[in-house]
């Protein structure tokens, strides 16, 4: 039963099963939106229940996209609560618990950004608002959206990119600047908090008795002063790719565990070394193993590690670990919403295969949530061989790999690095711009920046320019501090703008860029041929 079918069935017949489908599909998105605005568990649950009550009452009158309607209703309901409860309003922005796994400043910055993103999404044109909500907050795939809108996937992708660009532009006008790819990455990693099972039960009761079931309940909402904090997993880009706080190994298993925060239930009285040893043994790679997959549900030892070592209390659906000479290091954490992490994300995280080096044709979508452990230094062939076994055993998908050489256009960077800073630059050593060098002040059109290796910088820039950049320069620096200008937008489609950017980079680095045909090693994944009966 599709969402629209469930909505029509409930509106016509008050079918409890149809309402249960809607609860199952949308409760996480609604809970997440409420949790970004409110600090107390009871307030969040009140808003979620009121949103579904409004859905029950208005089911027959909803004429727009359901996900966008529910998202808008949730944000507005949460804002109503904040306005009504003036005595607690001052707590909302900073009331995330001390045991959050990011630093206080990062948590506050993320909280402010998430509130701003929610506000600006509500200002978008309805068609763009729907795409943002469906793709990033509800977690719908491009394929699903293409089928829903009856257009091709490339058309949906262009529309999504246009919506993200419009959101980015409006955020820049409000003082937050980021390149469109980074903004899309951030939207896709908005946390999905754990939903109490009791709340799901209460939501199902609304469907059992219809909209009238919530009358008594609604009369008590917004009034109970329960001051229970929830763990708001605020994931920033740096938190997603940060290295592990601790390396787990046989020797570290004998070290005492960190104290459990007093706000959490006390763990059973056991020898701390026991759970660490069990964790290490479960995640260790065999001598001939290069990739390992531990499917959900997560092991208790994994949750204890995250809680005691990294102070992470929100269950993370996807974690990629690296096995380094007998030790375990956490590298990536992702949350892609209900569909889960897809196969391309696994290939990027575990085999370092980006869009220039991978081709997936005809492979069904999978939910790859779970833990993936990859051996440090393993070859692509070895990792893909183990992935083949995992896909076959865990997902019943038989994949054929084909290593091919693809000839494609690339920008070749040659010469010798000689960084020369532009006098007008106020940050960074390299200003990446086309016709206008924007100044990095709040509200201006600077796109962002960072300090990375040349390889990472050219990989990122190649994606933004729509063409891979191959670095064949001499004596490259270990790190380059760079800043992106707003004038780089559309450089992937406007060749003149792309050339302006490269010319400006040449003036600052001494490198020259020339377009040439180059061979790229690409792994092509296709379904294995069916075996005859």
What's the N-to-C terminus distance? 34 Å
N-to-C SSE string, H for helix and E for strand: HHHHHHHHHHHHHHEHEEHEEHEEEHEEHE
How many separate structural domains?
3
Sheet with the most strands: spatial strand order: 1-5-2-3
- Count every helix, treating DSSP H or I runs of 4 or more residues as helices: 19
Structural class: alpha/beta
Helix content: 40-55%
Average of pLDDT: 76
Largest sheet: 4 strands, mixed
Strand content: 5-15%
Count every beta strand, where a strand is a DSSP E run of 2 or more residues. 11
Low-confidence stretches: 87-106, 211-246, 251-272, 440-447
List keywords for this structure.
533 residues, alpha/beta, 3 domains, four-stranded mixed sheet, 19 helices, 45% helix, 15% strand, globular
Layout of helices and strands, plus pairs?
Elements: H1 3-13, H2 16-37, H3 41-58, H4 66-84, H5 86-89, H6 104-121, H7 126-137, H8 142-149, H9 153-173, H10 180-188, H11 197-209, H12 215-220, H13 237-241, H14 272-283, E1 291-294, H15 300-310, E2 318-324, E3 327-334, H16 343-351, E4 358-360, E5 370-375, H17 380-395, E6 399-414, E7 430-432, E8 446-452, H18 454-465, E9 469-471, E10 480-485, H19 495-509, E11 512-527
Parallel strand pairs: 2-5, 4-11, 6-9, 7-10
Antiparallel strand pairs: 1-5, 2-3, 6-11, 8-10
């Amino acid at each position: 039963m599709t969402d629209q079918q469930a909505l029509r069935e409930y509106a016509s017949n008050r079918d409890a099963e149809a309402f249960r489908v809607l609860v199952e599909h949308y409760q996480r998105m609604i809970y997440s939106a409420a949790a970004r605005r409110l600090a107390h568990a009871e307030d969040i649950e009140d808003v979620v229940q009121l949103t579904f009550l409004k859905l029950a009452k208005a089911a027959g009158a909803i004429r727009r996209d359901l996900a966008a309607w529910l998202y808008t209703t949730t944000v507005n309901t949460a804002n109503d609560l904040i306005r009504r409860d003036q005595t607690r309003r001052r707590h909302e922005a900073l009331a995330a618990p001390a045991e959050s796994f990011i630093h206080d400043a990062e948590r506050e910055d993320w909280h402010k950004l998430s509130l701003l993103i929610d506000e600006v999404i509500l200002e978008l044109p309805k068609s763009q608002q729907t795409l943002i909500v469906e793709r990033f907050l509800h977690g719908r795939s491009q394929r699903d959206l293409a089928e829903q809108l009856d257009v091709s996937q490339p058309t949906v992708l262009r529309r999504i990119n246009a919506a993200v660009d419009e959101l980015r532009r409006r955020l820049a006008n409000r003082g937050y600047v980021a390149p469109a790819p980074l903004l899309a990455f951030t939207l896709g990693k908005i946390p999905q908090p754990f939903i109490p099972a009791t709340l799901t039960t209460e939501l199902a009761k609304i469907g059992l008795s219809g909209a009238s079931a919530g009358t008594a309940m609604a009369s008590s909402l917004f009034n109970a002063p329960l001051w229970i904090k929830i763990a708001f997993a605020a994931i920033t880009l740096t938190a997603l790719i940060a290295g592990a706080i601790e390396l787990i190994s046989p020797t570290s298993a004998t070290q005492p565990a960190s104290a459990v925060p007093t706000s959490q239930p006390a763990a059973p009285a056991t020898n701390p070394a026991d759970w660490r040893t069990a964790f290490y043994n479960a995640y260790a790679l065999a001598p001939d193993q290069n990739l390992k997959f531990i499917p959900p549900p997560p092991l208790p030892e994994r949750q204890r590690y995250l809680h005691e070592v990294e102070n992470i209390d929100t269950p993370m659906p996807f974690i990629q670990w690296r096995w380094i000479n007998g030790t375990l290091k956490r590298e990536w954490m992702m949350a892609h919403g209900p569909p889960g992490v897809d196969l391309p994300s696994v290939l990027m995280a575990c085999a370092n295969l980006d869009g220039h080096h991978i081709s997936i044709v005809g492979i069904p979508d999978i939910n790859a949530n779970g833990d993936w452990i990859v051996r440090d230094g393993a070859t692509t062939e070895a990792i893909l061989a183990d992935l083949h076994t995992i896909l076959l055993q865990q997902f019943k998908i038989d994949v054929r790999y084909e290593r091919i050489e693809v000839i494609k256009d690339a920008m070749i960077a040659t010469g010798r690095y000689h960084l020369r800073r532009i006098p007008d630059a106020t940050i960074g050593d390299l200003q990446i711009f086309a016709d206008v060098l924007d100044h990095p002040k709040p509200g201006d059109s600077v796109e962002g920046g960072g300090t990375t290796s040349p390889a990472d910088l050219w990989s990122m820039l190649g994606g933004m320019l729509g063409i891979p950049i191959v670095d064949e320069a001499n004596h490259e620096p270990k790190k380059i501090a760079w800043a992106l200008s707003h004038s780089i937008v559309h450089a992937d489609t406007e060749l003149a703008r792309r050339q302006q950017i490269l010319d400006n980079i040449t003036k600052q680095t001494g490198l020259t860029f020339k377009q040439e045909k180059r061979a790229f090693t690409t792994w092509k994944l296709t379904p294995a041929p069916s075996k005859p009966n």
